[in-house]
Amino acid sequence: MVDYFRSFVKLKNLNLNSMRIYILLLFFLASAIATPAFSQSKIGDIKVKTLEGQTVSIRDYIKTGRPTIISFWATWCSPCKRELDAMAELYEDWQKQYGVQILAISIDDARSMTKVKPMVEQKGWKYTILSDADKSLHNSLNVVTVPHTFLLNGDGAVIWNHSGYAAGDELELEEQLKAFVNKD
């Protein structure tokens, strides 16, 4: 890496002080990228919709003192459906052990939204399903791709997040739940 910077300095005719500034800027840029903007911030009063089309605030679903899992998904996303199926198998136990609730937030647009309710019924998912078709919640949490899962503390602050899904990720989520519940 040092050799890279030396060759960069030669190419750009930078002196040693300029190189130090360049390295510091790269370090701070990398730190900013590695630290998500939503870390430990509370979810605001953002509007989403129920499957019946009623506009509600996401804050109405975050229970004080209870952890909440928010999972962004879409009907066209196979990893999303696998993740939600895996969480569905554990959900009843998680509710008993950790008092957690799951909010599955669909980002399907108005055209594909008609597929959400039949899919949920066919899958038998027992958690709350909401719609964020305009992606206001999605954007406020800097979600880039789905599935993207967040764990919130009882005040609605993000304490953990994970993008993508591979078999077993739900066990990592459970470890985070255990750590949160057992921290007191």
Tags for this model:
alpha/beta, Glutaredoxin, 2 domains, 7-stranded mixed β-sheet, 18% strand
Detailed description of the structure:
The protein folds into 2 domains: 2-34; 47-181, Glutaredoxin (3-Layer(aba) Sandwich). Helices cover 42% and strands 18% of the residues. It has 6 helices and 7 strands; from the N terminus they run ααβββαβαβαββα. The protein has helices at 2-12, 16-34, 78-98, 116-123, 136-140, 169-181, and strands spanning 47-50, 55-57, 68-73, 101-106, 128-131, 148-152, 158-163. Strands 2-1-5-4-3-6-7 form a 7-stranded mixed β-sheet. Helix 3 runs parallel beside helix 6. The protein starts with a helix and ends with a helix.
How far apart are the first and last residues' alpha carbons, in Å? 43 Å
CATH H-tier superfamily of the largest domain: Glutaredoxin
Please provide the count of β strands.
7
**Considering DSSP H and I runs of 4 or more, what fraction of the residues is helical?**
40-55%
Largest sheet: 7 strands, mixed
Any idea how many domains? 2
What is the overall silhouette?
globular
The gist of it:
This protein is α/β, with parallel strands linked by helices.
What topology does this entry show?
Layout: H1 2-12, H2 16-34, E1 47-50, E2 55-57, E3 68-73, H3 78-98, E4 101-106, H4 116-123, E5 128-131, H5 136-140, E6 148-152, E7 158-163, H6 169-181
Parallel strand pairs: 3-4, 4-5
Antiparallel strand pairs: 1-2, 1-5, 3-6, 6-7
Helix pairs in contact: 3-6
